[in-house]
Amino acid sequence: MTTLSRKIKCGIEIHQMLDTQSKLFCSCPTKIRKDPPDFTFLRRLRLARSEIGEIDPAALFEFEKGLQFLYEGYNDSVCLVEMDEEPPHPTNMEALTIALKFALLVNARIIDEIHVMRKIVIDGSNTTGFQRTMLVAVGGSINVKGKEIPIETICLEEDAARKIDERKDQQTVIYRLDRLGIPLIEVATGPVIESPEEAREVAHYIGLLLRSLGKVKRGLGTIRQDLNISVEGGARVEVKGVQYLDLIPLVVENEVKRQVKLLEIRDELVARGLSVTDILFEPVDVSKYFEKTKSKVARSALEKGGVALALKLKGFKGILGKEIQPGRRFGTELADRARYWARVGGIFHSDELPGYGISEEEVKILSEVLSLGENDAFVLVFDEREKALKALEAVYKRVLEAFSGVPEETRAANTDGTTRFMRPRPGKARMYPETDIRPIVISSQLIEKLKGELPEPPEETLKRLKKHYGLSDVLAQQLFSSEYLFFFEELVQETGVQPVIAATLLTNTLKSLRREGVNVEVLEEEHIKKVLKAVAENKLAKEAIPEVLRALAENPESSVEDVIEKLSLRGLTLQELERLVDEIISERKQLIMEKKEKAFSPIMGIVMEKVRGKIDGKIVAEVVRKKITEAISS
Question: What positions does the domain Asn/Gln amidotransferase occupy (predicted)?
Answer without folding.
Answer: 486-628
